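ingest -> validate -> predict -> emit
validate: passed (alphabet ok, no gaps, 250 aa)
predict: started
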Amino acid sequence: MPETFEAETKRGATWRQPVGCAISTIVCTALAIWAVIEAPVPPAPGVSGLYVAAAVFVPLALWFGVWGSIAGYLSCVFMALYVGYTLDFALVWSLADLFEGLIPLLVFRALKAEPNYTFKKPRITYGLTALLLTVFVASAVATILTLTEVFIMTFAAALIILTAQTFVEDQKTWIMWIIFGVFIASAVSGIFGVGALAAFGKIPMDIFPTVLFGWVFGDVIVLSTIGTTLMVALTPAIKRTHAYVKGYFS
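emit:
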């Protein structure tokens, strides 16, 4: 009987993962389209200085494995088609969003590191998280109003708050999150995505640095604020469900 129950539980979890991937894709697609409409980087259609969907890609991958990365990839494909890109380009360009979640996932799994958000000092952690949300709001206003100096200040503020957080909770989790979940994820996604735009002739090379800046800095902002908030608020609960993926697919 216990073996039958365990088998049924595994089948249930396996069924939930593709369904969760489909739901996540819909949510990320809506966020991606909203971002490129509300906070575009004008020289490059489909690029946003406040790409909120990116804040979801990495948490999804760390929670749901490759299924989460696939959701990020598909959402970018749909967004690319929405803004007028052809399917062949969309399939290549969207790999930038696939890598954004996949690389942190590979690093966490390779190092056998479980995201540990069991808090030692929850009041401080939640307080710092609330500050990060405030930083995001300020960054959003700065982006929409093209206040570059304010945007850079919010970028610095987010990094200071994240750094402070590493001294409060599990250092391994927070250091890995900052390095791989925020910076490397943003940089790889930006370099590949903007590189694809240039390689396919969607943008001239002389604006490459501008578009890359908007992409990478925008992703760092949303991952360090919204992404961090999602990890803090939802990871403990998701890890207790059968939907949580400890490996890559299950």
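The two ends are 23 Å apart (CA to CA).
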